[in-house]
Write a structure and sequence with these properties.
6-stranded mixed beta sheet; Nucleoside Triphosphate Pyrophosphohydrolase; single chain; alpha+beta; 304 residues
Length: 304
């Protein structure tokens, strides 16, 4: 699957989180990531970039800290809005950009930290009564401070479908890629959209493709999923076969959409970043001519 998996991070909260002081009693350690808006603190040397992790010290904590998960006797937390810089080899770097330079595990950790922080930042007030919410259990939930309400809010994600639509156009097999309004000039990607209330994942694929391009699809096949913390989403990957090939971009989200052959995609370098679900689907299709979706997705998207 794409680069931004959680790589074995244990998200379980089967420990006592009323305090962090005791977590090191059993040989475990607690480390803190530092995030400022869309940037995360990194250690930089001549050849490598890695996340800067500081040891937990309750006297140095200035803001809210959130539990991210555990791995190999280490508990990971993130603190937002504090400096954290201690030496010249540390620097705050764009999370979206640095994920492609970090290890798979650290990329996932950074993206997850960003997504969790954004959820808490946008849920500081109760959706039921408007009173302030307070942090509980190091980010497991927020609870309304209004004693007559006390509504609990839990971090949630927005499910989105992303699909590679294939068709026989003339004497070639091609895929449908679109240029969205916010894309840079010349960039095309797979279609995607959020799931609506009351619809299945497969229905969402059919609806989104129809709404944005007026192409009818069938044979919708599930391929896998990818956490996409940059928008608080879970990307659910599909392939589909086109029943029609005439294209009418909606002109709102999609400015242009076309059928592309393998050679056209390679020549124009249209494949997206390998850490994205779109890039993964396109590269899998480019590198393996397989009807079976699961087989196609065994291709390493970093190749080529």
């Amino acid at each position: 699957m794409p680069h931004l998996q959680y790589s074995g991070l244990n998200l379980s909260r089967d420990v006592d989180f009323t305090t962090m002081d005791h977590l090191g009693d059993n040989g475990c350690s607690c480390v803190i990531l530092h995030v400022k808006k869309d940037k995360i603190l990194c250690d930089i040397d001549d050849e490598n970039i890695s996340l800067s992790l500081s040891s937990y010290n309750k006297d140095s904590i200035q803001g809210e800290i959130l539990f991210l998960g555990a791995l190999d006797d280490r508990y990971y937390f993130v603190e937002a809005g504090t400096d954290g810089v201690q030496k010249d080899t540390q620097k705050y770097m764009s999370i979206r950009a640095v994920t492609q330079q970090l290890s798979s595990f650290e990329s996932a950790l950074a993206a997850y930290a960003k997504g969790l922080l954004e959820w808490h930042e946008t849920h500081r007030f109760c959706p039921a009564c408007g009173s302030a919410n307070t942090l509980q259990q190091f980010g497991a939930l927020r609870i309304c401070t209004n004693e007559s309400c006390r509504k609990e809010s839990y971090p949630r994600i927005n499910p989105a479908v992303i699909m590679l639509v294939e068709a026989e156009v003339g004497d070639q097999t091609k895929v449908l890629l679109a240029h969205h309004r916010h894309y840079r000039k010349g960039h095309y990607s797979t279609l995607a959209g959020y799931l609506s209330l009351g619809e299945s994942l497969e229905d969402a694929v059919r609806r989104e493709v129809w709404e944005e391009t007026r192409v009818r699809v069938s044979n919708v096949q599930y391929c896998g999923s990818q956490p996409w913390s940059f928008s608080g989403s879970i990307m659910i990957l599909f392939t589909a076969k086109a029943e029609t090939t005439a294209i009418e971009p909606d002109g709102v989200e999609v400015i242009d959409a076309r059928w592309f052959s393998r050679n056209e995609i390679i020549e124009r370098k249209l494949f997206s970043s390998p850490d994205s679900a779109s890039g993964y689907l396109i590269k899998a299709w480019l590198e393996k001519d397989a009807d079976d979706c699961e087989e196609a997705l065994k291709v390493d998207p970093s190749k080529g």
